[in-house]
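Sample entry (366 residues):
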Amino acid sequence: MEQKSPPEKKEPDPTANRSKNRIGIAIAVVLLLVIVGVTAILLLFPEKNEGYIDLMGNIDVRQVNLAFKVDGRINTLAVDEGSAVKTNEVLASLDKRYFNDELKVQRARRDNLAASVAKLERGSRPEEIAQVRAQSADKEAALIQAKEDYQRAQQLVEKGGVSRQEFDRYQSTLDSAEAQLKSAQESQRLIEIGPRQEDIDMGRALLAEQDAAIVQSERRLADADLIAPNDGIILTRAREKGAIVQPGESVFTLTLASPVWVRTYVNERDLGLIQPDMPASVMTDSAPDQPYAGKIGFISPTAEFTPKTVETRELRTNLVYRLRVIVDNPDGGLRQGMPVTVRVQLAKPRQRTSWERFWSRFERRS
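Predicted structure, serialized as tokens:
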């Protein structure tokens, strides 16, 4: 039986080993050069103090949902999506016929109440006073005549010239004349005194109430026009002409052109250098040489992790504080979501960290 010879052992290839060694050496040399370069940059360029801080952020454009304060039918729509509008510009109007009719009714009621108050305040007319005095004099004459008739009847009844029944009629006539004279005299006194002060006060109160109702009607008529609260651009138009709308139902969405907000973040190390109302310059990538003027408007009291949408030069796991920068936007160049750089002028110089120094040198060399 034939015996198989054991397989021959292959000798290691010295060329392959040398290639691997050269790759490892090259990687080590590259890492060493990087370390030496970073160290050289940090040593050759001494640490500087800066009078500003650069923060990275994004534009937040504010939006307003515009709606009528009153209900009605839309009569006109003056703007459309994308239209630029100015402050106090009329954007839409309701059918005003109903509001005008309501205002006419309220004004007519007011005129009626005003006439009533004027009548009460002036008191009785001289002609009215003369009339009641004449009535009192007439009743007084009737009373005198009734007394004379009664006295004659009283003398005759004793002699039997007048029956007891007829005498009672004279008595009744006298009593009635006395009562009528008393009533006429009281009416005369009331007319001469004039209206009660309470009646005048009540009339004035009703007149003031009607004046307030007129103001409300005038305000409703004014609210039939939808006015732009600020300069901006119409983003959406939700209703069309002829639609019936209720109070608060959105008709337009307006993006406010100026001022706009910048949402940015500052780390804890620099938080003490930032104060509200500090001046700031906002620069865009498209026009970095044309900064926009702004100021710090809000500093969050609580810390949070840096959001992923924000690019900073620090590690993303650092805790930061949210800032709001208020920026004037006269040319409308700042738009929703646009990345910007916020440069805040500091009251005193700030020392840069080694990382910032290295990063700034790297950016300048690149």
